[in-house]
Structures are given as C-alpha cells and as structure tokens.
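User: quick one, fold this
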Amino acid sequence: MVKLLDEHERTLAFAEVAMGQIKSLRQTAVPRNYEIWYVYATGYNAPLNKIINETLARNGRLSEADLEQIYETYLSHIKTSDRIDKVGARVIGEIDDVMRLLTEALGMSASYDASLSGASQKLSTAQSRDQIKAVVDQLVKSTREMRDTNKALENRLSLSKSEISNLQHSLEAIRAESLTDPLTGLGNRKYFDRSIEMAVQAALANGEPLSLLMFDIDHFKSFNDSYGHLTGDQVLRLVGMSLKQTIKGQDITARYGGEEFAVVLPNTALRQALTVADHIRRAVMAKELKKKSTGEILGRVTISVGVSMLKPDDDTDSLIERADACLYAAKRNGRNRVICEVDPEYAADQRSQVA
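Assistant:
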C-alpha cells in the first residue's frame, strides 16, 4: 500500500508539472502536449529535455511547429515499429528473391536432367562420329549453362546471407534501443520488467539465491529546483556511470523510473548484496558534481538503497515490494544508507505502517 501511494504521489507530481508548463506557456492542453511535458517532468528522455530547454532559452516559447517536431522526433511511438516493419519488409524481399532464383535453378536442373536423358538415348542410337560429336557438344553447352546458373545462384545466396545478417543486426540494434534508457545508457523499465521476471523464475527453479537492490537519489528534486533540469540530467548520468563502473557480469542494472534505479543480483545472497549496495553508494558519493555551464562545484550526490532477497514463496512483485519498502525506510532514517529486510529500521518501519 505504501508503494502504491508513493507511486500515486510521484505520478501526480509529474502531472502537475506538465499542466503547469502548459498553463504558463499558454499551450493547448491536448494529449500530445501533455505527453511532451509529462515526459519532460520525469526526465526519462534527455534529448527531449535538451531541445526544449534550448528552444525556450532561444525563443522564450514553443510554437505549434516546435511541439509537433519535438513529438515526432522524440516521442512518436510508431517510429520503432516503422523501423521494424521496414527491416522486416527487406528480409521478406531478400527471401522472395532467393526463392525466385531457387525456382529458376530447379527449372534449369530439370532441363539439364532432360538433356542428359536425351543425350543418353541419342548416343545409344548414334551411327557416326558427327552424330556423337553433336550430342557431346550439346552436353558441353548444357553443362556450361548449368555451371553458370549454379555460380550465379551461389553468388546471390552469398549476398543474401550477408544482407540478411546485416538486417538481423539492425533488428537487434532496434530491439536494444527499445530496451535502453537514452539518458543513462542503462536498461529501461521495460528491460527491467523482462529481466527480473526471467531471473526470478530461474532462481526459483534452480534453488539459487537472488537479491534485488532498489535505490534512488537523495534530494533529487532540489537539484532540479535549484539548478535546472539539465543539472538534474547530469546527476542521473553520474549515477548511471557509477553503476556501469561498479556492476559487471550477469548482474542486471536498470533505470526503474525517474530518479529510481534497480540492480538484480542473480546467485547472490543477502550479505553479498549488502556489500554490493554499499559499494555502489560509496562509488556515487565519491564523485563530485560540477555544473557544466559555469564550472561551479555543486557538491556530492548520495543515494538511499533498499535490499531484499528472494524467498521460496516469493514472486517478482513481492520481491520488489520489500526492496522498495526497505528503500523508503532508508530515506526515512536519514538517507545515504543501505537498509535490508532484516534490519531493525525496516522492521520498525513496517510496524509503524501497520499501526
């Protein structure tokens, strides 16, 4: 219930920012404009935030044309499916071409087989050298044509193999892009949802430990309010970079949403997970935040972390719910700390929620 309320409040805050921007800039409150400003408020889409900030700094407003271009460039949901459709059409085109060549080759093979049969009959009845020579010449001609056809087919199949391989890489790149958070380079929420579900099922099936870290950036809103969204984006990138440098191998890292991140640690018990969590916390805190535009030192970023470990009767939702509750216990107990589900702070927090 606590998690649902917090998520409710968080999304309402994004909605209020979106409506506030629409009102202050006197824009029409149509779904397109609301979506643009809602995504802007979440900070999920760094390029969108950047172009909006630059356009507002330059012109003081966003025209209808600006809004249309921003939506088409950064938010249009049909772009990925369009790209997939185009690649798929090219794959089908390649297959159609190869099938046509194979049909022609089969026809040529049947014709060659008929030539061989006819030559065999003619040779059995040939009565002169000239007749034998004519049959042999025809066989040589048919064999040469068959060889040329096979060579052309071989070359075309080689080209098609290369083209289809390139198209496969394109599809993989599109898929990877659809699962990547553009601001931090980590997996996005869609990637996290898919990955943790598979990791949990594998851990339960194999009887292996699995731990989950949920953390978010302390006082993130104050960074945005004090220094602007570009600095807020820089904070998110800093945390993303710390995660990339700290987490390796089979572990799963993702931007869970807004300023919240998640790390799934397969084959990792709670004590090891706590060590990893504190390592991440220290790595983030070790980096100094500097405002790019002025070089001003803005201080250090800290994070609060909640840790849960998979239980035999768990499912993905319950694992996430406990990690999230531990995260909020960490924030309520002073921030910049790691709390897990066996810590007294978590137990006390749960008792107070029940009460």
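User: anything notable?
Assistant: Confidence is low (pLDDT under 50) at residues 1-5.
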